[in-house]
Design a protein that fits this description.
five-stranded mixed beta sheet
Length: 209
């Protein structure tokens, strides 16, 4: 009898310790403020990054028009234009820079640049780490939401503690916000959906039980 009582006390103590740990984790998770529902910038313009492809059209000069990749060093090379920096520029700025280079060879060049195969600069990519089904890096797009991100990574693993997830917002000095992924994905609570910002890191922790 004494042994059974001791076993029950031991189990009770283990359960109590687990509940205490869970409450501490919950308190830790809730210490972060909820992520703002709206976060995107109305003035946002996509900027070019390594791995993007830019389609360059030079009016009345088809021999100078082509699609070229942005190299890992952030530069592009086209006929008559070598090692022109493209990283961090929007398409209009890059087009004007190409025009300046082509003015050395042709009169009044008119250039249009269209970005395809979007990757974006590293500083603006969305990173998903932890208990996502397919953790990955995603290019940021205007009005991208938490739900968009979760669809792209295939949801959460069975071990995820979705309601303890956080967003690390690098654009705000690494400020951290809490998000409720389980409520959003499993319960369809659209009030848990929030907008992402360039450079956000979504951290999905593992559940302890």
């Amino acid at each position: 009898m004494q042994q059974k009582a001791a076993t029950k006390l031991k189990k009770s103590g283990q359960i109590g310790a687990m509940l205490l740990a869970a409450s501490l984790l919950s308190a830790c998770a809730s210490s972060y403020p909820p992520a703002p529902v709206a976060a995107s910038d109305a003035e946002y313009s996509y900027v070019i990054g390594p791995g993007d492809t830019v389609n360059i059209v030079v009016w009345r000069n088809p021999e100078l028009s082509m699609s070229v990749p942005v190299r890992p060093d952030g530069k592009i090379t086209t006929p008559l234009v070598e090692d022109l920096p493209a990283l961090g520029k929007d398409s209009s700025t890059l087009a004007r820079d190409i025009e300046k280079e082509l003015e050395k060879f042709i009169r009044e060049p008119v250039v249009t640049v269209v970005v395809t195969n979007f990757v974006g600069p590293y500083s603006e990519q969305i990173r998903v780490v932890g208990e996502a089904t397919d953790p990955k890096i995603l290019p940021y797009t205007q009005k991208m939401t938490l739900l968009d991100v979760m669809i792209a990574v295939g949801g959460m693993t069975e071990f995820a503690d979705g309601n303890s997830a956080t967003i690390l917002r690098t654009g705000e000095g690494n400020k951290q916000y809490s998000v409720r992924i389980r409520d959003l994905v499993k319960r369809g609570d659209v009030s848990a959906n929030v907008e992402m910002r360039p450079g956000d890191v979504l951290i999905i922790p593992q559940s302890w039980f």
